[in-house]
Amino acid sequence: MIKIEFFHDVICSFCFPMSARMRKIAAKYNNIEIDHRSFALGWEAEDFIRSFGSREAVKPEVLGHWVQANKNDDEHRFNIEGMRQTDFNFPISKPALKAAKAAGIVGGEAVYWDVFDRLQNKLFVENKNIEDIAVLEEAVKETSISFADWKAQFEKEETEKAVLADLQLAQSYGVNSAPTLVINRKYAITGAQSQEHIEEILAKISQDEGIPLNKLLTFKTDDPAGSCSIVDDKWQCD
Questions:
Q1: Is 56 helix (H, G, I), strand (E, B) or coil?
Q2: What SUPFAM superfamilies does the record point to (predicted)?
Q3: How far is the C-alpha of 143 from the C-alpha of 171, rounded, in Å?
Q4: Nearest to residue 166, comparing CAs of 121, 116, 114, 91?
């Protein structure tokens, strides 16, 4: 199996289109495993102040990044003007990363991904403040996870420690940007690359490593051959 560690931040604009592409890739290939890893662009307010000079200076600059990310996004989903009109400071990474990690601890990687995507949608499309616990809870309630279980896990110290462990892992790999894919702990793809380009790289890794992207490879021939299959609980033979 090809293992992909997807380093991202909920507040990362280029992670929004990248997540959508990785979902398509995950649906296309059944011999890859995607693990979600935290990468904090602004863990706490002090990080923003150090990088931008003040909390207030973050949003105007980041909205410029949104313009580029919206061009990169295959569906151009960003509501840039809506965000410009909001009256809250651009959110830090910590609350939303903890929210996604809590979901992953409770329900596994698929649930993590659902909560992560809902949180990103809250920020980039709905223009809600994902630093606000009420918004985090709203996003979680829109997924299949037990809210009570998520809430209990979110409040545990181990959840923050798990996020910090991801940040340390990123440092050990030398990952310094989001989004980044680390593949089999040997290869890295940085930036919101196109689905086609990611697949080309995965195909090359698959060949080099001798690991198929799909568990079974079906060879097509020009020779017609009969077969029977089950479709909607009924036999279909041709």
A1: coil
A2: Thioredoxin-like
A3: 31
A4: 116
Using CA atoms, how far apart are residues 135 and 107, in angstroms rounded to an integer?
20
Name the helix (H) or strand (E) containing 114.
Answer: helix 109-124
pLDDT tens digits for range 179-214: 999 999 999 999 999 999 999 999 999 999 999 999
Give the dihedral sign, CA 97/109/195/183.
Answer: positive
CA-nearest of 57, 85, 82, 29 to 214 is 29
User: In angstroms, rounded to a whole number, what is the distance separating the alpha carbons of residues 124 and 13?
Assistant: 8
Whose tokens are 């017609």? That residue is 224
Of 23, 22, 19, give the one whose Cα is nearest residue 9. Answer: 19
Residue with tokens 């892992």: 169
Rounded Cα distance between 101 and 115, Å, is: 9
Residue 222 pLDDT? 63
Question: Which tokens belong to 197?
Answer: 């380009």
The token pair at 45 is 């307010």
> Is 181:17 a contact under the CB 8 Å cutoff?
no
pLDDT in tens, 131-158: 999 999 999 999 999 999 999 999 999 9
